[in-house]
Design brief:
The chain is α/β, with parallel strands linked by helices. It has ten helices and twelve strands. The protein has a domain at 5-181 and 361-376: Rossmann fold, CATH 3.40.50.150. It has helices spanning 15-22, 35-45, 93-104, 121-132, 192-196, 237-244, 262-265, 331-337, 350-359, 363-373, and strands at 5-9, 26-31, 50-51, 68-70, 108-114, 139-146, 157-164, 176-177, 187-188, 212-215, 218-224, 346-347. Helix 1 crosses helix 10 (363-373). Bound molecules: S-adenosylmethionine.
């Protein structure tokens, strides 16, 4: 077997592994404690090498040697959306990551994290270990990459760190740009249309199909794929009325004030992307774990056609309810924008699958990193 081997830590449902496997890396261990995410990973890449549990419980002697370690310690502790607490126990998990590096002795490791990771004390500690500590035989490159610059239909900015003991590996150069200069090799950004156009706009079901499969000795909902996870929600009439006013690229400020909940009426600025609508010919905003809630981001379906007759107050332009699609993207659509293959298998409840999708590294970004690293692996 000449394929380079990879360990995926905090593997989630395997978004990052999708990209590395597509570039010829063979997974030998994945560690993930969310049992449904671990099961989704197992359904797609095999159960034998999955450790469905806490990374701290993996004993040193259970860690195989591998050419590569990928994975990002969870980021809630530093994320813009979470509380910034330095003593948050989740921030210690990067030390587990280093234990794996010392044991598996990879030629290269890749850490993925929130865009502000390089401003965190954890990053400083990592850098100190690389400069004069236990990781001193590695050199690192780091920066914030936007998935849209690597052919993903989503603007998702993540810190990527590549550590190498086989020569410095620069971050991959973008392959796509918003408006490529004439004559450059760059392709234009891929769009929401590229991924979801043509899917049924009114899905038949509001539920996952009945299906159960055993993973790790436990029966779990799934596996589901493709249109199985293309189900709709049935919003209240008031919610539908609000969505109708939001044009592509718009958000809560396009909704007449008297239709807004009181808390938003009183908050005149900020959170501009909430209750936002995607644009067909642009990459989406970041898909997060609660993309099924319109009040959490820019998740409304991009199809919106204004009514020909305008309302009395021309500030508020309403979409034609027959020609517009007043719902958030489905799980299937979100998974495609997150760059999962159409036939990816999913395990868990609706909420569990949404969490897996929103947490993932889009495979196009992972692929670009894998392609950059591959020639360095001996
Ligand atoms: C950002 S997600 C990883 C996404 C993944 N790289 C992908 O591309 O799909 C981080 C994951 O770490 C897992 N996790 C958090 N703490 C853990 C621990 N102590 N042991 C194992 N997994 C853990 C979470 O359940 C979550 O799925």
């Amino acid at each position: 077997m000449n394929e380079p081997t990879v360990i995926d830590l905090f593997a989630g449902c395997g978004g990052m592994t999708v990209g590395f496997a597509q570039e010829g890396f063979a997974p030998v261990l994945a560690v993930e404690w969310d049992k449904y995410a671990a099961a989704t990973y197992a359904a797609n890449f095999g159960e034998e090498h999955v450790r469905a549990g806490d990374i701290a419980d993996v004993k040193d002697e259970e860690i195989p040697q591998a050419d590569l370690i990928i994975g990002g310690p969870p980021c809630q502790g530093f994320s813009n959306l979470g509380l910034k607490k330095l003593d948050d126990p989740r921030n210690q998990l990067w030390r587990e990551y280093m234990r794996f590096i010392l044991k598996a002795k990879p030629q290269v490791f890749v850490i993925e994290n929130v865009d502000r990771f390089s401003k965190s004390p954890e990053f400083e500690m990592l850098r100190a270990e690389v400069e004069h500590g236990i990781l001193r035989n590695y050199v690192i490159s780091h920066g914030v990459l936007n998935a849209a610059d690597y052919g993903v239909s989503q603007r998702r900015r993540r810190t990527i760190i590549i550590g190498s003991r086989v020569g410095k590996i620069e971050l991959p150069a973008p392959t796509h740009a918003r408006e490529p200069d004439p004559g450059s090799d760059l392709l234009p950004w891929r769009t929401v249309r590229d991924r979801i156009e043509g899917l049924p706009v009114r899905p038949d079901s509001t539920e996952l199909p009945d299906s159960v499969t055993e993973f790790f000795g436990e029966r779990m909902p799934g596996t589901f794929k493709n249109l199985d996870i293309h189900f709709r929600r049935d919003p209240r009439p008031l919610s539908l009325e609000r969505y109708a006013y939001v044009p592509p690229g718009g958000g809560r400020f396009d909704v007449p004030t008297d239709l807004l909940p009181k808390c938003w009426r009183e908050k005149a600025t900020g959170t501009t992307d909430v209750m936002g609508r995607m644009r067909w010919d642009f990459p989406s905003h970041t898909i997060r774990t609660e993309f099924f809630k319109p009040e959490k981001g820019s998740y409304l379906h991009p199809q919106w056609i204004p009514e020909s007759t305008q309302s009395d107050d021309s500030r508020w332009i309403k979409g034609d309810p027959k020609k517009s699609v007043n719902r958030v993207v489905t799980h299937f659509e979100a998974s495609l924008i997150q760059d999962f293959p159409e036939d990816y298998l999913w395990v868990g409840s609706k909420v569990a699958i949404a969490r897996q999708i929103g947490n993932a590294v889009p495979s196009g970004l992972a692929r670009a990193i894998a392609r950059q690293i591959r020639p360095f692996i001996n």
